[in-house]
Write a structure and sequence with these properties.
Elements lengths: L16 E2 L5 E2 L4 H14 L7 H5 L5 H12 L10 H14 L3 H6 L6 H12 L12 E2 L9 E5 L4 H12 L6 H4 L13 E9 L2 E8 L8 E2 L5 E4 L4 E4 L14 H4 L1
Antiparallel strand pairs: 1-2, 3-4, 4-5, 5-6, 7-8, 8-9
Helix pairs in contact: 1-3
The structure holds a DNA duplex.
DNA sequence: AACTTGACCAACCGCCAACAC
DNA sequence: TGTGTTGGCGGTTGGTCAAGT
């Protein structure tokens, strides 16, 4: 499914330079790596601000930290992602968006930077963005709504599949499928979804539902809003009719 | 052979939350 | 409570290589 190999082991980095403050930037030399590694192994990865001075490096602390975390730290894998890793990254990206540190935490030996680079270089182009389906039609409410999806599902499975094909939520969307079995009956009613751009950086999804479920969502103190942490999607009860916040990291699922 | 273009990835930049004082 | 510092994070940049022209 995925083709992902390091083309070579050549170093492609910025040329070392020393800025006006005497701080070195750019590619790390072998000697610098050895100094940093020796220091960390002896004293541990703490007080990054002091590390350059104590380790005898002309680097800023931030640069040392980055070098250690992304390159020198023991246990790191380099390149050659397995199909399992690729599929896991895609799956996690669907779930978490560009939260690379969260994704990398579930991939032993991989750093957030490496996962991010790998996604941008290899995987992003392999995951086709979903487009709006022909079932979209405009709705009267909420009035700000630009688009609204109207769909009648018989079961949660139907609904999950609909969401997968329409919104690109492939993982059968725990937002919907984790409901209690008894709540499946609710899917006989109409579910409306809308999408709206509030500004360039923020996409919002609007949803309302005339027989709103109670689990597994966390209700607010008025029991009018329900929150799904998995997707950063907040859904509102029919009394409030619409409005939901949306993690902007998921924009690329929808745009 | 020379040049251009795109892919790749290490490293940097800027923002922000947590923490210390 | 306000301010400064630090570490963490995600986005972006810049340099090199390989392939194409």
């Amino acid at each position: 499914m995925f083709v992902s190999q390091r083309r070579n082991n050549n170093i492609m980095v910025r040329a070392p330079v020393v800025d006006k403050d005497g701080v070195k930037r750019g590619a790390w030399s072998l000697e610098e790596d050895q100094k940093l590694r020796a220091y960390i192994e002896k004293y541990g990865p703490w007080k990054w601000r002091e590390v350059p001075t104590l380790a005898g490096l002309m680097r800023c602390g931030k640069s040392c930290r980055l070098r250690w975390l992304n390159y020198l730290r023991p246990g790191l894998k380099r390149g050659n992602y397995t199909n399992e890793e690729n599929e896991l990254i895609c799956k996690l990206h669907q779930k978490y968006g560009n939260r690379w540190s969260t994704i990398a935490a579930k991939l032993p030996g991989r750093t957030d930077n490496e996962v991010k680079n790998h996604w941008n270089a290899h995987l992003r182009k392999q995951v086709k963005p979903k487009t709006e389906s022909s079932t979209i039609k405009h709705e009267g409410k909420p009035k700000e709504l630009r688009l609204s999806h109207v769909y009648e599902a018989k079961t949660s499975k139907d609904f999950a599949e609909y969401c997968s094909s329409t919104f690109g939520i492939v993982e059968s969307s725990s937002c919907f499928s984790q409901q209690t079995s008894s709540s499946d009956d609710n899917f006989g009613t109409e579910i409306n979804w809308g999408m709206e751009d509030y500004n360039i950086d923020q996409l919002q999804i609007c949803g309302y539902y005339d027989n709103f479920w109670t689990e597994p969502y966390v209700w607010d103190h008025n029991q009018t809003n329900a929150f799904s942490e998995d997707y950063g999607i907040r859904m509102f009860s029919p009394q409030q009719q619409y409005e939901t916040t949306y993690d902007h990291n998921y924009c690329d699922l929808f745009c």
